[in-house]
Amino acid sequence: MLSYWVAIIMGIVEGLTEFLPVSSTGHLILTQALLGIPEDNSIMKTFEVVIQLGAILAVVVIYWNRILLLFGLKKDPSRAGKKKLNLIHILIGILPAGIIGLLVNNWIEEHLFSPKTVLLSLIVGGVLLIIAEKSSSRKTAQELDDITYRQAFYIGLYQILAVIWPGFSRSGATIAGGMLSGVSRGASADFTFILAIPLMFAASGLSLIKSYKLFTPDIIGFFAVGFVVSFIVALLAVVTFIKLVSRMQLTYFAYYRFVIAILFAIYFFMM
């Protein structure tokens, strides 16, 4: 069952959906159901963490210069004397979700990782995307460096929705939260991608430490294929999304979520 084809399929799904507002976790759970893999398969749970690391590594590559600026390892003369995004913004943005995740992560994995939960969260998350897109709030932060500490905190609060509800979409929650907090769609997406790096590395690292015994010689190749595929696909997906987000409304992603939820609801009803 756990062939290289499964690794490639899951890697593609993860890479395509991790940073789009459609929920990679939700798509992985639904894909796993389609492939006939049990929900409680411990190897697949670890595999999902591995391919998630592949996707987040793609963001590190794309935003490498911005990361260097955040840590003061590179200077930007054009921002001299002006406010700019810094590590405090990142810390404020990840704390709410990080704290909640530590408190309820095990319970959520045991009780909420199911196709039915995902279908409902796809719909509710889609509604939030439409609300954010239709919001008339004035955008006070057009660029990434314009984001205030308060806006970073609000975005962090919205991120909790994705932590406690599999299938809601971390990027969808944070981009929508940013727009509802007065941040432009493009700046919200950029902040979402950067915010994902420490949060996902921490969550993935913790999960891998717990399941390190599963990394046996006969399964390493399966993990490696998924990791590489996820990295390459995510690299292409993020670059494409960055170009589209400034002119593509979130409502299109919301409609996609509704269609996927309806199709899978029909599929599960007919099973």
Which terms would index this structure?
271 residues, mainly alpha, 11 helices, 74% helix, globular
Overview of this protein structure:
By secondary structure, the chain is mostly helical. It has one domain. 74% of the residues lie in helices and 0% in strands. It contains eleven helices and no strands. Helix 3 packs across helix 9. It is globular, with a radius of gyration of 18 Å. 42% of the residues are buried. Its EC number is 3.6.1.27. It comes from Paenibacillus konkukensis. It is found in: Cell membrane. This is Undecaprenyl-diphosphatase. InterPro entries: UppP.
Question: Level of helix content?
Answer: over 70%
Number of domains: 1
- The ordered H/E elements are HHHHHHHHHHH
Secondary structure category: mainly alpha
| End-to-end gap | 20 Å
- What is the number of helices? 11
Residue-averaged pLDDT, rounded?
A: 86
What kind of sheet is the major sheet? none
Principal-axes shape call: globular
Low confidence ranges: none
Number of strands: 0
Gyration radius, to the nearest Å? 18 Å
Strand content: under 5%
Catalytic activity: di-trans,octa-cis-undecaprenyl diphosphate + H2O = di-trans,octa-cis-undecaprenyl phosphate + phosphate + H(+)
Protein name: Undecaprenyl-diphosphatase
Pfam families: BacA (PF02673)
Keywords: Antibiotic resistance, Cell membrane, Cell shape, Cell wall biogenesis/degradation, Hydrolase, Membrane, Peptidoglycan synthesis, Transmembrane, Transmembrane helix
